[in-house]
Amino acid sequence: MFPLIARAHHGGKQDQSQMLDFSVNSNPLGPSPLLLEAWHRADLREYPEPAYLQTRTVLADWHQVRANQVVLGVGASELMYRICFALLEAGDEVLSIGSPFGEFARAAGLCKANLTITDRQNPALKKVRLLYLSNPHNPSGHHFADLEVDLAPFLDCADYVLLDEAYLPFLGVHPLGTSERLIRLQSPGKAHGLVGMRMAYALCGEKVAAQLYNLQSAWHIPASLDLVLRALPEAQGFVDQTLPLVQASARKLADRLEVPFQGVPFLLVPAPRASELTAFLQSEGIRVRDCASYGHPDFIRVSTQLEHDARFIQEFRRFYGP
Predict the structure, then answer these.
(1) Which pTM was predicted?
(2) What pLDDT, on the 0 to 100 scale, is given for residue 145?
(3) 163 partner at 20 to 30 Å CA-CA among 146, 154, 179, 226?
C-alpha cells in the first residue's frame, strides 16, 4: 500500500480571477498557432492509434533515437510517477542535484525511497539507484553548459539518471540521443506557451521504455494530444522566432531587479518577507511564485511577461519602499 503524502505546492492559476501571472514558466508569446491547429484537427469520434507508433517515430527521428525509445505522457509529472514506480523499491537511495520538482519528490516518497538533496555547484555524490538532475534548474535557472562532459560523474554514481529538460528549449538546445541508463524528460508545452495541453515524452533506453509502457493504460494519450506531439518538429519555428524576444525581455527584467540572467524566462529574486510580498502582490492582481517549497524561503520566482514587467517592478518596489 502506498503511503499518503500531501500534494506538492505549485504556482500557476488557482482560481478564475484575472491576474497578471508571473508564476508560470511559460513562453509569454504563446500559444504556438500550429500546435493549436493540430489540437483542433483531431478526430474525436475515433480512438487514437493504440501504440502511437506514428507519433513516436516522428519524435524519434527528430531526436535521433529509435521509436521504441520514446515514451509519451500526459505531462512530465505523470511520466515521473511511472519512472519512479518502474525503477524504485522501498529503501532505494535517490539523489537530487539541487531542489527537485515537487512531483518527483512525491513520487519517490510514494515508493518509500530515501531522497537526498545536494548542492548543484559542489554536489556531494554517492552511489544511488536514481539521480534526478534538472537542466536548467527550477527555480535557480542554473544549467550545465557542456552537459555531455558534466554528465559523466552523475552517471558514474547512479544506476539511472533522470534528466529533466523542461526548460532546455529556452537555451536554444535540442537534445539528441539517449542511453540505457539515461532518461531525458521533455516538456515542450513550456516553450510553446501551452502548458495546459500537458504534452510530454521521455527519451530512454529500450528496457526502461518497456517498463514505462507496462505501467500505462490503453489509449492513455487523447487524440488531440497525439496530434500535437506529432506536430512538434514542424512547430519548432515558433520557438526559434520567439526565443530571442523572450530572452531579451527576461534579461531586461533581470537587470532591473539586479539578479543574474541565466538564459531562461524566469528569475530567482531575493525577497525578504517573501510570503508577505506574495500576498501583497496578489492583492494587487499579480501572482508570483513563493520559493519556500524549494528550500528558498527568502526568494520569489518571476517569469517575464513582456510589457507587463514594468507593473511588477512598480509594485515590487512599492512593497519594500524607497
Answers:
(1) 0.94
(2) 77
(3) 226
Reference 212, options 197, 223, 202, 226; nearest CA is 202
| pLDDT the model gives residue 15 | 56
Provide the 10 A C-beta neighbour count for residue 238.
Answer: 20
d(Cα 111, Cα 103) in Å, to the nearest integer?
A: 13
Task: Split the chain (322 residues) into runs of 10 and give each run's mean pLDDT.
Answer: 70 65 95 97 92 97 98 97 98 97 95 96 95 95 79 94 97 94 97 96 98 94 97 98 97 97 96 96 96 92 97 96 74
| pLDDT for residue 1 | 72
Q: What residue type is assigned to position 283 of the chain?
A: S
Q: What share of the chain is helix, strand, coil (3-state, %, to 5)?
A: 40, 15, 40
Region of 182 please: left (phi>0), alpha (psi -120 to 50) or beta: beta
SS3 letters for 180-236? CCEEEEECCCCCCCCHHHCEEEEECCHHHHHHHHHCCCCCCCCHHHHHHHHCHHHHH
Cis amide prior to 139 (ω within 30 degrees): yes
Q: Is 158 helix (H, G, I), strand (E, B) or coil?
A: strand
CA 76 to CA 82: how far, in whole Å?
Answer: 10
